[in-house]
Each structure stands twice: as C-alpha cells, then as structure tokens.
Design brief:
Elements (H helix, E strand, L loop, with lengths): L2 H15 L5 E8 L2 E12 L4 E2 L6 E2 L4 H14 L30 H6 L15 H4 L12 H11 L14 H13 L3 H10 L21 E2 L6 E2 L4 E3 L8 E3 L18 E2 L1 H12 L8 H7 L17 E3 L4 E3 L13 E6 L3 E6 L4 E7 L1 E2 L1 H4 L1 H11 L2
Parallel strand pairs: 5-15
Antiparallel strand pairs: 1-2, 1-14, 2-3, 4-9, 5-6, 7-8, 10-11, 11-12, 12-13, 13-14
Helix pairs in contact: 1-11, 2-6, 2-7
C-alpha cells in the first residue's frame, strides 16, 4: 500500500467513524497512472450492502464537465460556436432581462454560467424559479420543452455577461447540443466523450439498479436516508435543492446536462485526467487548456467568499487556493456534485482526485474534501 493510500484510508475511515458519511469510492490519478482506487463503508446502510469500487453514483453536477467536453468537441468540429446565439438552435429561448429587453445569450454565456439564468435553489422560495417549478435536473418528470418554457417565463436575473450565477445553463446547453446534433443528449455525449473513453458506466439512465448506491443526507446523530421528494438545505436564506432518487431510472424526464448523469469513480477520474493531460482522444490541447483556465475575466464565483475562485468551462479555477483553505496548486480546476461528490484536477502536480460519496453535503463541501486533498497533495 502506498503512502497516499494509507493517508486517504485514514481520511475516509475517520469520516465514517464520525458518521459524517455512510460510504465512498475515492480515486486518484498521478502522472497518468491510477494511484488509488478504493471503496469505503456502505452503499446501502440499511441493507448492509458494502460499497464496491464499481458502485454507481448519481453524479449531479459532475455531469457538467462531461457535457461541457462534448460541447467543446462540437465546437472543434464547427457544429457549435462559442459566440453564437442560443436562439440559432432554440428560437423560442428568449428570456427577458430585468429591464424588459431580450438580450442575446451565447454558447459562451451558457458554458460559463454568465447567461443571467439561475437555479431554483439559488433563489428564495418566493423566487420565479420556485414559483414556476423550474427543475434543476435532480428531480422532476417534465420534458425538456416544458422546462425550457418555464426558464423563459422566469426571466433573467441580470443581463448576459454581467455576473456569474450557478444555473440551469448546462441544461439549456444540452438542449442546444441535441438540436445541433439531431440526437438525444445520451447519444451526443456517447459519441464525443463516453464512447471514445470507454466510460461504460456513465449514462443518463441506470439499468443496473443493484450497483446504484443509496444516498444520504447529513444529520445528527447519523446521516438520514434520502428518498423521493427530499429537500436538501444548501444556501442559507434560499430554497433547498429538490432531489428524487427515482430520477436515475426515468427515461421520460429531460436529460439534464447539468445534473442528470450517473457513473462510477474509475470512469470519472480517467475522464478528468484525460482533460488534464491534453484531451487525446476526445479533445485538442487548446480546448482542454480553455476548460482549465479562467473564462470569466474579473468576475468571481459566489461560493468562495475570499474571491479567489474564477470559472473555466466545466469547473472552477482556483486562483489562490491557500486563501480558500485548500491544499491545491494555483490554477487547479475543480467542482462537485450535490449527491455528495467532489473532484480536483491539479495540473501543476499532474494529479486528479475524485471523491464520490453517498452523503451530502459532507462529501461535496465537508471536512472529508479537505482531508482527502491533504492526504494526496500536502506531502
């Protein structure tokens, strides 16, 4: 066992002993090689089912870099353009700005979450996304057309390009990709990303239910089981996140490019490390460099109060990780998933970390995230 494995084991086992998580699969790539892949705890605590290295997870926002990579390949092929208007493919997608105008939203705006769109959980309960029941892609049984119509009716929070706000933008991007390609988003992503990389367990719909882990939410004295209709508190003073476990099997719900995929840790760590290493065989080094560099200029993401985090394509860019209390190198690319996940790509150290847990919010933003970073990088 390597020293990395010993330290990661200690971090994961501490989180389980403290009842901060129920189970996890943690994977690490270094210099293009798999340095660690191990399962911890339970996939289903009540059933006594152990977590296994090939367990499947609802990926939530880990869907975003995968769909983003497919979009980047379509841009390379000339099927999309960063500066093209969304209405080129979705003529009715014309949400109004606060001043009543209908400004142009571009593919770049969608990729960078600067379109002026929002999520229901980024607004108060009384906000338009909640009144109109705009789906964030972790619940719901509505069609793509219906969700797009609700988004249009809800309007923009600010003019495109004026600010950064986490949003349904990648769901809208998925709709654009489907129109441009003339295929379901599952097929588009398979064509450009999951197929070439042999990501056999990464998809919008789960068929092997026995491998899909049961999710939990942090509570005292131990995490509680998440079922359909769960409302997960997230940002103080704003609405919770609506989560439904059955959506992973629902083929009638719209394919949510921002939150709807499922997969295994080994697929995700190899995909992210492919981006780190230059993109072959799915993308050019120019595209992967763009994904891992600041694409929002002086704007900053709202989740880091230190103001040290920008956004690339598919994830955030850590400008000064130390000020954010992180162990990563400047320029690292990272994000997470609300079902309980985090991932970090540190190009300077040629290291990629994927931490898939079945417990939110600990596995996404809790102590375990920092402990695993430290276990891998701070030595």
């Amino acid at each position: 066992m390597t020293n990395i494995s010993q330290r990661v084991d200690a971090a994961a086992q501490s989180a389980i002993a403290d009842k901060r998580i129920v189970g996890a699969v943690i994977a690490v790539m270094q210099d293009g090689d798999l340095a660690h892949l191990k399962a911890y705890g339970f996939a289903d605590r009540e059933a006594g089912a152990a977590m296994t290295p090939d367990s499947l997870f609802r990926l939530a926002s880990i869907s975003k870099p995968i769909v983003t990579a497919a979009a980047m390949r379509m841009i390379e092929l000339g099927k999309l353009s960063l500066e093209a208007a969304v209405t080129e493919w979705l003529p009715d997608f014309t949400p109004s700005a606060p001043d009543g105008s209908t400004p142009t939203i571009t593919i770049r705006h969608l990729l960078t979450h600067t379109a002026g769109l929002a999520y229901d959980f980024m607004q108060p309960e009384s906000g338009p996304y909640n009144r109109l029941k705009v789906s964030a892609g972790a619940d719901g049984d509505i069609s793509m057309e219906e969700n797009l119509a609700r988004i249009v009716k809800a309007g923009l929070v600010f003019p495109p390009g004026a600010a950064w706000l986490y949003s349904v933008a990648i769901d809208v991007l998925g709709a654009v990709m489907m129109k441009a390609e003339g295929a379901h988003l599952e097929e588009v992503v398979k064509r450009y990303v999951t197929g070439p990389l042999a990501m056999k367990d990464t998809s919008f719909f789960v068929t092997d239910a026995a491998r899909l882990v049961q999710p939990y939410s942090n509570a005292a004295p131990e995490p509680i089981r998440i079922e359909d209709g769960h409302r997960q508190p997230f940002v103080p003073m704003l609405a919770p996140i609506n989560m439904s476990v059955s959506r992973a099997f629902n083929r009638t719900a719209f394919p949510a490019g921002g939150a709807g995929m499922n997969g295994a840790a080994i697929d995700i760590v190899r995909f992210l490390d492919t981006i780190r290493a230059g993109g072959e065989p799915i993308l050019s080094p120019q595209s992967t460099a763009a994904m891992m560099s600041n694409q929002i200029g002086p704007l900053r993401i709202i989740f880091d109060p230190t103001g040290n985090t920008a956004f690339g394509f598919g994830g955030s860019i850590l400008l000064d990780p130390a000020k954010s209390g992180l162990h990563l190198s400047p320029g690292s690319w990272q994000w997470g998933g609300v079902w309980g996940h985090s991932w970090h790509v540190d190009p300077a150290r040629r290291t990629t970390i994927v931490n898939l847990t079945n417990t939110t919010l600990e596995g996404m933003v809790g102590q375990l995230v920092r402990d695993v970073q430290k276990a891998v990088l701070a030595h």
